[in-house]
Amino acid sequence: MKVMAAQQILAVVTMHKDQVAGQAPIFFVDNQVELEKIALYLARILMAAVHDLDNETYILVKH
Length: 63
Description:
With about 60 residues, the protein is an alpha+beta fold.
């Protein structure tokens, strides 16, 4: 039997160190290009969906 986590935040990628906290892994980046690149790579690795929160922060969610 295969057990998988679902409907949870797997990671956060952000440019704002002072606005993000929590228990999910948080990846801090310096610019927009790096933000998109890291979010895309993590989404592929984790097989997750990327959601843009419109404040230079992306969350990766397993649906």
